[in-house]
Amino acid sequence: MIDDSPLLSPDTLLPSQWSDIHGRVDNEQVKNLLRAILEISLRDATGQRSTKGGGRRRKYKSTASQREHAAMKQSGRASALRREALDWIFDDGGDGVFSFRNVCDTLGIDSARLRERLIGKRAAERQAA
What we know:
This protein is an all-alpha fold. The chain has 5 helices and no strands. It has a domain at 27-46 and 77-129.
């Protein structure tokens, strides 16, 4: 027989539970977290990485083939991040606490308008290429 103890219960948070927690914690801290999630996702979706820190410096010299291999590996990683970010942004079925729509609603951002702007930016990038 399986024991239904709290130890085996799933770690899920329903939107109704989120509103209970949201009322008890500092609202600005929650918004800072959501802003960070949204910013990282938008940077990944558009392929714009943060310029803070100026990038990593290499302590060794590499050959051209090593640099080419590293660039291909980085490109694959960036493509995967872009796909994941776009999936999250354009997922209309997401009703979880950290879904794109709920993040935007909490921050007071029009999610449909943001999606439209992102689509326009991607179309402009394709035409420029």
